[in-house]
Fold this sequence. Notes:
This protein is mainly α. It is built from 1 helix and no strands. It has one helix spanning 20-47. The longest helix is centred in the middle third of the chain and has 28 residues, at 20-47.
Amino acid sequence: MVIDFWVNEQQELKGYGFILWVVYLVWIALIIALYPACNWFNNYKNNNRDKWWLSYF
């Protein structure tokens, strides 16, 4: 797709995508959903410092 003028003026893209508050809502939901997995991995790393693959070189 070649965009040769301002994106908002293209008729093919009218109504495409989501409004901003929906994007923020999805972003917040994703952060909340990923928090338990990140917290688990953090605890796993702290309790298994002897594993070489959990550390930076």
